[in-house]
Amino acid sequence: MEQFIVWLKYLFLGVVQGATEPIPVSSSGHLIIAQRLLGLEQNGLSFEILTNTASLIAICFIFRQEIGKLISGFVRFLLTRKAEYRSDFLFCLFIVVGTIPAVIVAGLFKDRIEEIFSSVHTVSVGLLLTGCALWLIRNLRGRKQDGDLKFKDALLVGLAQAVALIPGISRSGATVITSIAVGMKQETALKFSFMLYIPISIGGLVLGASDIAHDPNRAELAIPYVIAFLTTLVVTYFSMRWFIGIMARGNLKYFAYYCFGAGILTLIFL
């Protein structure tokens, strides 16, 4: 019975990760809150890496056509220099530009950031800040499409993604908000945000593979980890599909309300 309860707890963590990874409410912050409520303590990065990988697989599956088009266009432009592939080529370059700030900050300060900012109160403040940012851009409607992006746009969105390494600051929220703020259309902002998520997540998986391999609890937690992984995979897929619809309708203000409520309740009760 005790083992079954543990499985249920990890099932719940998978639901939390999957539901919150695509949407602008901070999946890392929600996992900290959920683990606090469930009395679970994760030592090391194995669980975070596994669940992020599950979310990555689901998101790559949803954007598989866009990913294929970008890779094809990038390669064809290098080979032919035809103008019709220039937009895809530049978009790929801007993904690299937008990834660099988070890579630098994570490489230099990630452990320090987690040590300083991984408290529940920090998550509360991060949620409130995310809510404020969502509220400020709720009515913006940009015009920039894929081919209209500039180096400055990619760099600013990349800097926002680096700031989102702080638990409670939503990665998708920070990148979508900044993308909209620099004038991108909703669909371009969504696409650019989640294209940036892919290299960051792959990098985290590669760098964190040793954490998984040397996790002293991997045998004991094998089944709970598998449950959380599969749950995250399925829930991320449906959450991402739902968020795509939300972005198409421009209803980001509802996420602002949620962040305000979650941040205030967490400050009061946790």
From TrEMBL:
Keyword DNA-binding in annotation: no
GO cellular component, one term: plasma membrane
Main location: membrane
Compartments where found: Cell membrane
Domain of life the protein comes from: Bacteria
Pfam families for this protein: BacA (PF02673)
Membrane-spanning intervals of the chain: 89-110, 116-137, 192-210, 222-240, 252-269
Enzyme class: hydrolase
EC number(s) reported in the record: 3.6.1.27
Function according to Swiss-Prot or TrEMBL: Catalyzes the dephosphorylation of undecaprenyl diphosphate (UPP). Confers resistance to bacitracin.
Classification via PANTHER family: UNDECAPRENYL-DIPHOSPHATASE
Family note: Belongs to the UppP family.
UniProt protein name: Undecaprenyl-diphosphatase
